[in-house]
Amino acid sequence: MVSAEATKRGAHENTPIRVLIVDNEAAHAQAVAESLERVGYDCAVATSGPQGVKRIEQDAFDIVITDLKMNEVDGLQILAQAKEKLPDAEVILVTGHGTIPSAVSAMQQGAFNYLLKPLDLGQLRAVADRASESLRLRRTNVELHRRLDEKFGFEGVVGNSTQMHDVIDRLKRIAPTDASVLIQGATGTGKELVAQAIHQNSPRKNKPFVALNCAALSENILESELFGHVRGAFTDASTDRVGKFEYADGGTLFLDEVGDMPMATQIKLLRVLESSEITRVGSNEAVYVNVRILSATNRKLEDSIESGSFRSDLYHRLKVVTIDLPRLADRSQDIPLLIEHFMKQFAKRHHKNVQSMSAAARRRLMAFEWPGNVRQLRNVVESMIVVDYDGVLDLDDLPSELSPSGETTEEVRTGSLAGLVGKPLAEVERLFITETLQQTGGNREAAAEMLGIGQRTLYRKIKEFNL
Known about the structure:
CATH topology of the largest domain: Rossmann fold
Oligomer: single chain
Strand order of the largest sheet: 2-1-3-4-5
Shape: flat
Number of strands: 14
CATH architecture of the largest domain: 3-Layer(aba) Sandwich
């Protein structure tokens, strides 16, 4: 029977835990190895301290079981070596009654546990399983944070354009601070994704990230959502309710479409930002909160201040730092990267075996104006993934918004070629390469893929046509 814990290593549950046993007594070391191998551990044996050090330097182990008293190199030195070379590994010491104080000292130096001689094999397996579980939980936590960083970290803010390089550079400088940030940009430019990236790369990353859309709620409901309420505060308040501020305590509160917040709520929000205290609706008791505020708007708040619909003092409180997100049309060279990013994301989500996108479909996506920005592109690629049946996203997978009204795919292709008929082939080739390079923002790798040629061929053509 294989131990359940012994088969769990990181994210790969079928990979056995690797164990190194270091003991001067070869027979004893072999007995320990055989006992653990019976329940699924992958064991190696070193019959001296120096040999143990050499194995630690040359190989990777999850658990090291070492005798404390050995000639030349003892268990404490093995422990020190393991902590240096295998920082993720757990070390279990085997000791006699006379060396218990040394074993306790070793625990203070980072050993996982110690066992007394003569060894009880059942106890040995139990301690090894606990060490395996500790490793699994730690690695699962690391993997979770890696996935969060991939999804919400700066890697998730996709773009290779100058504009997006500037945005990401600004994010890296802003994130570690506690400053309030106002994120400005048109609908669909990725304001909430940027807010999540700021939070995920801040000291508050292990605390809540709470988002609230200020435009979707009436004044009374918005105040209850922000500050909470007590029972009886209004007709439907049958119980006490914690608001977003309290729920986000220690973390980050993201106020989306803050420009649509009613004036009365703006006044209360300003008071909270000044005092770090909220008062639930219907209560007189102040509650201290420690929350970082990130806000976003697709409006020009200076115009709202001029018209009297937004408070100037609140505006300056919210915009300690600003981030301006460009429209997708202004950074079209990022479209190929975004296409690849969304193709991988949605092929995995919808369990579709999508291999590529045709050059014709890529050209159509590159030529589109994208009034809905990145969100619209994201939705289009997802739609194409969902309806695709042959593993290649093509013109026939495009949603209607990207197909000219009344035209069939064949008519679109014919129309686009009509103006090139009769021209010299070299001129047509030069035109296609020039247009494709412009559409990809000079990205030669993406251009070569769209044109269906190798990168070396493209480089040669660029030189030939003096592009």
